[in-house]
Specification:
The structure is a homotrimer. By secondary structure, chain A is α/β, with parallel strands linked by helices. Chain A has two domains: about 5-150 and about 320-330, Rossmann fold (3-Layer(aba) Sandwich); about 165-310, Rossmann fold, CATH 3.40.50.1370. Chain A has helices spanning about 15-30, 50-60, 95-105, 120-125, 125-135, 150-160, 185-195, 215-225, 235-240, 260-270, 305, 315-330, and strands at about 5, 40-45, 65-70, 80, 95, 110, 140, 170-175, 200-205, 230-235, 245-250, 290. Chain A has a five-stranded parallel β-sheet, with helices on both faces. A five-stranded parallel β-sheet of chain A has the order 10-9-8-11-12. In chain A, strands 4-5 form a two-stranded parallel sheet. In chain A, helix 2 crosses helix 12 (about 315-330). Chains in contact: A-B, A-C, B-C. The interface of A and B includes residues 307 and 314 of A.
Chain lengths: ~325, ~325, ~325
């Protein structure tokens, strides 16, 4: 683990991830309620949150630390991030001041900053988050950036461990419908996680929703190192046959990135990509349904699946707390 | 006390309430600043709050515990609660995921969820809050639901104790004006509290604002057990004669529940139900004015009363902290 | 220091300020992570905040205490402050109830309440904040009122100490452009701080932006006591010649206070009051640029200055945490 940052699961080898998860297990069995006594975590949410907001605060508290939350636009003014701009608009403060100042008040900072959703190359390069990270000289946690969500990926890996899904299992990352184009952060992070864990990974998505080549290439490199594989297809039948895990996720069209009208036109005919019980007809017995939440019921995934025995979504969410405690312990334990 | 829930004062006998208040007194005299060390309270506010938001956090902190706050619609997306719905609207997450996830991050959860104010039977049955409570396998505190506000009722009981108001005193729950139809939670909770404490309870309200029969019936049962009585009237003169306590409260028309226009028409002529000093002309000497706050000055209650010696509204509010510490201690002390 | 309030740097002599800063230094060198264990700070933000919101919470936590945040209008209803008003509008609660209640839940309260910006005399008298302060019987911290910002002033003094700026240095409080009329709180507080520290203080502002006579008079009295001086001018050349510190700050026209159109007309031609590197052409070598933040880049101050070696704005912001810990320690240490 980089000494002081948790920004991307791809910064870690499979063995390093397993070490971090071993620490998470140890903290569950042997709590350390004073490990981070006196330590302060700043949490900056440029976008809404439920799991991350609650679990980061709860995780710090369970380790004896404290956190504060800053939500630009709600109780705090909007932040400007463009360089060189003449700030005569709505944003009252630039990240070049705001973020270093917040970092100077705490021992570690977490930042959530979703994709802008306009420029695919910029979002895939995570240029916005990287610009923020460059301003901060404290331990830093990525709470979801344009193209990454390492806390989610780590929780998902632990969930696969908890469910005793072997590395050689078939993991299908399946696009599912949503009223709007959502960011690529979770699909990219889940893909990389599954590749690094050694799975036979199939990205199943309609035409127009292919994951960006750079994202695929990174996952392929991880798969080569772990003995897994990665491929992409629009053929639901072949993808789902024999699947051990279906990881449902919504994302926007990459062919029409930033073009809401074209994206909407494309997804209009794709409602039947919703995951239903019938989705699992040819899957392996006991195939699990994963989803990072929040999930739109009966749009992305049907009630019958979310409320049935396949669903491990609540365990994934609970594991956010469990693995983040390990991350915080690693970053902040004196 | 039910092992792990504080949802309704009606779940307790009078003696059980007195035990809880004795614990509150003990914690005031002998603070236990480490009693809840390491314990985490999650607070979910589906509606605004001042007293509850501040006093629950302060109470946890005074007992050594920690809390986090989730406010759907502010920093967190809106939550859907309808079953079976196709979630293609504004709400991004269903309570069936959101609430169990939050519960999994903490040791106890508090939830505030006001009445919808459309279907009287559903609100009186507290069906929305009950559906939420059924999803949560942790200690749970009702921070005000459609038809209940047990923390307020407990604080009000303590206030009557503090003011040495005897059980046999006359307690008048008096409807007062407000620009809009407010929920029935506090009047229902105050009525039950006063009945359980043994008072001669008079619900004084204009025609069209009768409390629901189910609410009255529960209070009558409590009064029978305690030796008190409950009746309802629109006659201010008889109601206020000899009153020892006037508990002022705003609520919406039950005859036109959910019909804002009809409610507004009804309340248009009722401005003189405002509590003024003259309201107490025939009351017992030293008659107190209670109100749960927030109160609209010079609409519901006149300045002269709120700023005079009868008002115990600040004590009621302070007692929220005092009694909630007992509730948290009971629910969470290992 | 008044036993239990931190409302105005003008309540302190220069020696008392130096004592407080010595405590801040001591807490930096010898942290006291349990000094405020069990103590609770309530923070009421009637206006947005970044530094204050984060640093007050972080400061309490670093001293072992806890804080809670109340933001009327966000999760809490709006508060009414006018006396005698009939509350049939948007505000659901009056400060006469809201503030004493919050005070009763905590050991100290901090309040931020910006100027209304309509009535100059009322704002200069800080009548709104004073009315709130009169309702509170607990230690109280001014987190920025209509005409004051003592935490900022104290942090700025410390920054001058850190930068080894001698008392006899020339301190130029320079008006800078902003899209809107901003309050007088920071210029008034910075002016007073610099006068009390003994500087040769020059208030440099365009015609129409003179600081109120009462503010100037108070600063002049402080300057007389400290051996400094205070004067006001619209002549940039003479003001900036030999300056050791330029403290840039935006504020609204006092000649057209509360008249947005007249204010806008006046500031339309003043864009070149922006602080650029050329602003320092005749300044003393090593002249510093101070600003309380948030700063609108390339409107108030150019990138070249903020990103260059003169800027001490991040140190000022960090010192907010440092000095506030001393304030909290003084107010709350048992």
């Amino acid at each position: 683990m980089s000494p002081a940052r948790f920004l991307d699961l791809a910064d870690f080898s499979g063995d390093e991830v397993r070490e971090l998860l071993a620490l998470a297990d140890r903290l569950q069995r042997h709590p350390e309620p004073q490990a981070l006594a006196g330590r302060i975590l700043g949490l900056v949410f440029l976008n809404p949150s439920l799991r991350t907001l609650a679990s980061m605060q709860a995780g710090m508290a369970r380790l004896g630390g404290t956190s504060f939350v800053i939500t630009p636009g709600q109780g705090t003014w909007a932040l400007e991030s463009r360089l060189g701009v003449r700030m005569d608009g709505a944003a009252a403060e630039h990240i070049r001041e705001g973020l270093p100042v917040l970092a100077s008040y705490c021992d570690a900072l977490g930042i959530r900053a979703f994709a802008e959703g306009k420029d695919l190359a910029a979002d895939v390069a995570d240029s916005g988050f990287r610009a923020m990270a460059a301003l901060i000289d404290k331990p830093l946690v990525n709470l979801e950036s344009a193209i990454n969500h390492p806390c989610q990926a780590l929780a998902d890996w632990k969930t696969l461990d908890d469910e005793r899904v072997p590395a050689r299992a078939k993991f299908v990352l399946s696009w599912v419908p949503h009223p709007r184009a959502l960011p690529l952060a979770v699909p990219a992070a889940a893909l990389h996680m599954a590749a690094l864990r050694g799975h036979e990974v199939v990205v199943l998505r309609p035409e127009g929703f292919a994951l960006p080549p750079a994202v695929m290439a990174r996952a392929e490199a991880a798969a080569r190192a772990s003995g897994g594989s990665v491929r992409e297809t629009a053929d639901r039948q072949s993808a789902l046959a024999g699947a051990h895990v279906v990881y449902a996720k919504e994302w926007g069209s990459t062919a029409h990135y930033g073009d809401a009208a074209a994206d909407a036109a494309l997804r209009a005919g794709l409602g039947d990509w919703q995951v239903r019980e019938s989705t699992f007809a040819s899957a392996a017995p006991g195939c699990r349904l994963m989803h990072c939440l929040p999930v739109r019921r009966n749009v992305a995934v049907a009630d019958e699946v979310l409320d049935g025995p396949r669903s491990v979504v609540l365990r994934e969410a609970h594991n956010r707390l469990v693995v983040q405690m390990a991350v915080l312990h690693r970053l902040l334990k004196p």
